[in-house]
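Propose amino acids for all 354 sites.
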């Protein structure tokens, strides 16, 4: 009698455990599209750019930056990055494209960001195959979250005080999202599978970014709040959607000499990716070398890395340059590398500044 009752109880517990784990796997997920995912010039400075931006990339980095920028700016920018340590079941991948046109009080732009995140699915079933389900049976099963956002917006800027401006980018966001459980030997394998086989579901949302810029003498300070409404996008393969996390970043920049400046940025809010929580501090420099060449470099460090996932904090080192091909036409490039979880990133851009 008692063995029968125990067997029935074990079955009930097994069902409850399966449901609980499945519920956790289908819980609402937030996907961090890294602040430094867009902008070759910005990435070359390690992402220390909120108080520096003065070209058309301000529509992304700090809308208020247009007020102190050039009379006219046209930008075409693209890049990609990946962090997928060898043999790890955690990884991220990002690609971006930006087309922007800007004047001191008005900007118009479009940018596309594709972000993918891979992390292990629940491994509670590995020790007892009797508790397995079709999607939760092996340690090598991973969850792949993917979000492609097409963002088209208009940036408006207003001067509120001498040297102080506020700006906002009003944008329509079309998100194509998916969340799936796939078998994979590594995060890199899962990312390849996502790129080739997984189709997402499209959702349209309205969102806005807000920025403030203050300048006085050689010192500038900026503040940006992105993804203010935290739009959520429906997914295929899950009962809930992916939320685009709100991001807040402050920055300062100082003109050391006529041709050189130093900058620092600080994330004010935590975000989360496959490797855990993230809140970056970035420092960078930019300066002119000769008449046509500008060089830049930077460092970004995650200040809240999860100790149980990895030992040392994520650190990324950046180097970049701009070359004036003719007059006001610049070609930009950058490369970023770091430890395993920081991964690598590259970008190229063409700018017309008048």
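Proposal:
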């Amino acid at each position: 009698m008692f063995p029968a009752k125990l067997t029935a109880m074990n079955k009930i517990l097994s069902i409850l455990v399966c449901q609980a784990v499945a519920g956790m796997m289908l819980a609402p997920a937030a996907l961090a599209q890294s602040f430094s995912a867009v902008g070759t010039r910005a990435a070359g400075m390690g992402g220390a750019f909120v108080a520096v931006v003065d070209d058309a990339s301000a529509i992304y980095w700090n809308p208020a930056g247009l007020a102190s920028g050039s009379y006219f700016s046209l930008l075409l920018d693209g890049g990609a990055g990946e962090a997928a340590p060898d043999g790890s079941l955690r990884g991220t991948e990002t690609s971006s494209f930006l087309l922007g046109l800007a004047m001191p009080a008005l900007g118009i732009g479009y940018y596309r960001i594709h972000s993918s995140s891979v992390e292990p699915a629940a491994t509670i079933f590995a020790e007892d195959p009797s508790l397995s389900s079709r999607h939760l049976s092996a340690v090598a099963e991973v969850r792949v979250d993917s979000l492609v956002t097409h963002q088209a917006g208009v940036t408006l800027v207003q001067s509120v005080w001498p040297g102080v401006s506020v700006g906002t980018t009003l944008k329509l966001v079309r998100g194509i999202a998916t969340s799936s459980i796939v078998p994979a030997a590594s995060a890199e394998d899962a990312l390849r599978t996502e790129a080739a086989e997984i189709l997402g579901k499209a959702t349209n949302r309205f969102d806005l970014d807000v920025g403030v810029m203050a300048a006085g003498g050689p010192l500038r300070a900026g503040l940006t709040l992105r993804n203010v409404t935290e739009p959520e996008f429906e997914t295929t393969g899950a009962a809930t959607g992916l939320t685009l996390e709100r991001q807040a970043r402050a920055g300062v920049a100082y003109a050391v000499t006529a041709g050189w400046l130093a900058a620092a940025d600080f994330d004010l809010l935590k975000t989360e990716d496959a490797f855990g929580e993230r809140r970056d501090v970035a420092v960078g420099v930019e300066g002119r070398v000769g008449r046509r060449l500008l060089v830049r470099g930077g460092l970004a460090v995650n200040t809240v890395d999860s100790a149980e996932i990895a030992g040392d904090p994520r650190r990324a080192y950046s180097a970049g340059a701009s070359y004036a091909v003719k007059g006001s036409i610049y070609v930009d490039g950058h490369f970023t590398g770091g430890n395993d979880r920081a991964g690598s990133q590259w970008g190229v851009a063409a700018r017309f500044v008048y």
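Helices lie at 2-25, 40-44, 58-61, 187-197. The chain has four helices and 20 strands.
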